[in-house]
Amino acid sequence: MSKSQSVWVSRPLFPEVLASLAQYVDVRTEAKETKRTPEQLHKKLAEVDGAIVGLSDRIDAGVLAGNRRLRAIANLGVGYNNLDLPALTAAGVLATNTPDVLTQTTADYAWALLLAAARRVSSAERWLRAGRWRGGMRFDDWLGVDVHGKTLGIFGMGRIGQAVARRAIGFDMHVIYHNRSRLPEAVEHECRAIWVDKAELLQRSDHLVLVLPYNAQNHHAIGADELAHMKPTAVLVNIARGGIVDDAALAAALREGRLAAAGLDVFEGEPSVHSALRELENAVLSPHIASASADTRRAMAQLAADNMLAALGYGPSAGHPPS
Ligand code: DGY
């Protein structure tokens, strides 16, 4: 039966999620994920009532210009810096994101990067795979920095930051954090975390995890100045967004031994990665996969689909049966 509303899904998604959407709306899918130009996005959005998009789809006033049909955008992610919210509001388009479902998985991954960078896991594996392990175990080689018992700094103490902090309890760490506003005392107590100003966070952290949202104020929140205030033995982890760190300044600090190591899941201008970072053995690099467990990506996709249906007035909560 033909459906009255259409939804464009900008990238391949789980078949069962698409099927749940297709009960209510006409679903237009894409066989592969690709970076589209504003003109291409404009054309896609002109033909539908809703769109499920991701970080690489920048939805702004130009893309929305003249569109009288679009009613909702469901973003596949908790971060939504790819959406120009004032432009969406002006166009009367509802925007949704996928908080909560990815919190624990993303916090797990912050720890994967932190441990891998501190203990040189990627670099050691590359060396071993290259067949360079010949002379037994050298006692004074492959020395990393300890994690347990150290001071963990968290910059951005929302849901994910708090989940990162809770995991530090098992590592007997001292947790300090910086956030625009202090958390309620009960939450600080539960996370065993102490608020400090940004300068103290940079100076005291043995390991610093970035979990703040990207916006104009946070552009290069970690740049050359900030890096100069960190310990040369420190490890920096970015699971937040590219652009929060000045990647060129970070590469220089890592190369010159002013910072011990970094674990990076996000980059300025990704998918391209600064060539200086790619050359460094003390940088662990991954392609924006912090939320990429099978369960979590499925939950994110389903939440985006449910958000879309609710925004278009379908689904169980709207009491509207499939057509
Ligand atoms: C998020 O949810 O914000 C992740 O970074 C994926 O974009």
UniProtKB/TrEMBL annotation:
The residues forming a coiled coil are none
InterPro entries tied to this protein: D-isomer_2-hydroxyacid_DH, D-isomer_2_OHA_DH_cat_dom, D-isomer_DH_CS, D-isomer_DH_CS1, D-isomer_DH_NAD-bd, NAD(P)-bd_dom_sf
Q: Does the keyword NAD apply?
A: yes
Q: Could you tell me which residue ranges the D-isomer specific 2-hydroxyacid dehydrogenase catalytic domain spans?
A: 9-315
Which CDD domains does its entry note?
GDH (cd05301)
Q: Which keywords does the record carry?
A: NAD, Oxidoreductase
**Boundaries of each D-isomer specific 2-hydroxyacid dehydrogenase NAD-binding domain copy?**
112-290
- In Pfam terms, one family for this protein is 2-Hacid_dh_C
PROSITE patterns assigned to the protein according to its UniProt record, in alphabetical order:
D_2_HYDROXYACID_DH_1, D_2_HYDROXYACID_DH_3
Q: Which domain of life is it from?
A: Bacteria
Q: Does the keyword Cell membrane apply?
A: no
Query: Record's family?
Result: Belongs to the D-isomer specific 2-hydroxyacid dehydrogenase family.
Record protein name field: D-glycerate dehydrogenase
